[in-house]
Amino acid sequence: MLTSVQEILKQLVPIYPEFVLIAFALSVLVVDMFLNGRYTHLLGWYSLIGIVIAASMTIILGGVQGAFFSGTVLLDPFSQFFKLVFYLACGLGILIAMKYLDIEDIHRGEYYALMLFATAGMMLMASAGDLITIYLGLELMALSIYVLAGFMRKDSRSNEAGIKYLLLGAFSSGIMLYGMSLLYGLAGTTNLDGILAFLRTADLKNPVLFLSMVMLMVSFGFKVAAVPFHMWVPDVYEGAPTSVTAFMSAGPKVAGFAVLLRVFTHTLDPLHADISLLLSGLAVLTMAVGNVMALSQTNIKRMLAYSSIAHAGYALVGVAAGGQEGAASVMLYVLIYAVMNMGAFGVVIMLRKAGMRGEEISDFAGLGKTNKTAAFLMLIFLFSLTGIPPMAGFVGKFYIFKSAVQAGMIWLAIVGVLFSAISAYFYLRVIMLMYMYDPKEEFGLVQSPALALALAISVTAVIVIGVYPTPVLEFARASVAGLL
User: Fold this and answer.
1) Total tally of structural domains belonging to the chain
2) Among 76, 100, 327, 335, which is most buried by a count of CB atoms within 10 Å?
3) DSSP states of 269-308 as a string?
């Protein structure tokens, strides 16, 4: 009996990190019942311990590679890179949430459990070697995020956000399943390597094959908020609790790009010519709508929502470029985007105090005169989002556009640079308000050791990667080498 248990445990080694997160999530729910609403913030630190343990296991398993569970789960440098990004996003999301949940009076243990469940789903998506595994991971992530978006049950905006995300997400999942079923009908397998082997000898002009590819592009486009599948983003980002919006803008988006790269760069590589053309169009449309619509926003969360759409467009440029450089540049970019965007939302949370939501852009007026540290942090994050050197955002955009030029898509790089210049207007408008306007009123900002730690990690990452991006870029290049 003992031997059989040891054998089972040995076979489960590749998914130990996922098991750790799920075990911690379940234990959070159990412990929360006994705490009865008291000391709930301790569950946040407890969840962070689970993330650290899972991250340690992922690093230890760095030397283990291969396909497991009949090829449905892959352990490779590519998945390990994305898992580390997910740990970072989840950890920052928990840190910035602790005080915010107290302010909104929604501090309940299930919040942290849902965060851990969502992260486990993202990890499954990054490790997926099979279409079914992709779907299972995506649903585990999505169902958790649906609940988190509507977590403020007494707030009509939060209710609206949860319902909109649920309904549109259900349509997206249905389209993805239809595309997967068509691909399975043609290839006779749901294994990604098996589909690749089929495509190398198949008739690539088959309209059913093209239809399945388009359906997968539509569903994944929804997850990364690409235009025209972006309509849910502004309302959901505005209505969801700000800490959830921060996490949504980083974790699920990065997970979507992990699947995009594995499926479209690796599995559907024989269709690269058609894929590149479609993705280029999506990238231009996404950059255009995201940047132009952000110009007229007065709510900081809606502005950052359209900014998120625009940044998805920049990342799609790298996916369209393809190849090792294109994929590596996307991996670098999504990491940078995660830290700088979560940092910006962290500063937004700092303004949520004394009955003030701090969600209007006008609320930032005079912040540089009353709270210099908060204004300086926001300055760093907005400069990075704009792409101004030496911040990390500039490095991310540089390598994205460089990959497009190397792929012979110079026109796409030029379009990206032009839209990046347009984005400077709405980012710098916030900076102008902070430093060139007088404050409407003075009030103390939210003070929390957890929030301070999250902002310190974010701003350090933005500056360090901006000044010295080589280690992260080389890690990304090494991670993608086995994918192509």
Assistant:
1) 1
2) 327
3) GGGHHHHHHHHHHHHHHHHHHHHHHHTT--BHHHHHHHHH
